[in-house]
Amino acid sequence: MIKFGLALRNTGPGSSAEAIEAGAETAERLGWETVWTTDHVLVPRSAGAEYGRAFEAIVTLAWVGARHPGLRLATSVIVVPQRNAVLLAKELATLDALSEGRLIVGVGVGWNETEFANVGAADRFHRRGAYLDETIRLWRHLWSGASEPFAGDFHSFSDFVFGPLPAQRGLVPIVVGGSSPAALRRAGALGDGYHPTRTGPELMAQRIPAIRAAAEAAGRPMPRLSARVAVKAERVEGGGYSLSGDPQAMARDIRAFEGLGVDHLALVFDATEPAQLVAAIERFDSEVVRAVGG
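Predicted structure:
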């Protein structure tokens, strides 16, 4: 049966400690599986309305994880090529160790060239896919406890000690976001899961064959499927897919996701005030989750 998670209000209007806590408390109380954080660091003014105010994704999960031991902790998604891959390996391993194995790492290549330049990673923007591919291999190498040298195009080291290891060791789930052909290949060839945004059942169905083919070519199992979807009263044309309409309509879409093999939805609610956010989550749980049969 499909599980539900909450995209925390760590970015954009209404992002605050109070809103993050209200969402996490409600998700845990209702038995939802996972909370997800969004990652942006230093966006240009053109993206400032949505991402100019952003509580850092990993630090936020550490704070939430310490307060809510019943929740899994996930990123949706880390813009990996903007960051140092080895430092990320340490931060994520630490979070998984301290949370006793509750981490899911959602990763992506990013899209905003100005933000890359703002954080000193302009030279990686046009090689960001290759950087992410190498980073996934680097993480699995370090997290497995391997002591052999690592050699790549961006990172090479032979004299090193890495610890602590994640509680999940090299099995920390890595889920890949994005919609490009390269992202679909990456999800199948390297990922443990595929985690797109603004993607409905019809588009998901179109992408699954490419993911499966990449997994088969790499001799790997088909990745798990999840999706990040906005919950809206009415569907807005041109803004990408949203879970919208009355509870029955939303339930039909959720069953369509489930029929494709999607086992988790990370839900984004518009509410910016903590009390409104709690009410929206509770209403969805009582009306839509019940209609689905949860």
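Summary: The mean pLDDT is 97.
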